[in-house]
Amino acid sequence: MVRTWDGGTVAVEVCPICSSLQVRVVEPEWFLVELERSDELRPREPLFVVEFACRDCGSRWR
């Protein structure tokens, strides 16, 4: 947990490899299929998994 300037507290992701706080969320690669069969090609429930990446060592994890 880290204290912010306005007095609040936020959770911070820490790299499991190098313990760096320089962590970012990797944007998922989205694309849209515009076909007549798009309902058949898209999953019924969207699959979204948050992936993190360390800016210092380059490791990635979920």
Describe, in plain words, how this protein is organized in 3D.
The mean pLDDT is 77. Helices cover 6% and strands 23% of the residues. It has one domain. With 62 residues, it is mostly beta strands.
Helix-strand blueprint:
Blueprint lengths: L1 E2 L5 E2 L12 E4 L11 H4 L9 E4 L5 E2 L1
Antiparallel strand pairs: 1-2, 3-4, 4-5
How helical, in percent, are the residues? Answer: under 10%
Principal-axes shape call: elongated
* Percent of residues in beta strands: 15-25%
| N-to-C span | 19 Å
Number of domains: 1
Strand order of the largest sheet: 3-4-5
Mean pLDDT: 77
Uncertain regions: pLDDT < 50 for 5+ in a row?
Answer: none
Q: What is the alpha-carbon Rg in Å?
A: 17 Å
Summarize the main sheet: 3 strands, antiparallel
Question: How are helices and strands ordered from N to C?
Answer: EEEHEE
Write a concise keyword list for the protein shown above.
62 residues, mainly beta, two-stranded antiparallel ribbon, 6% helix, 23% strand, elongated
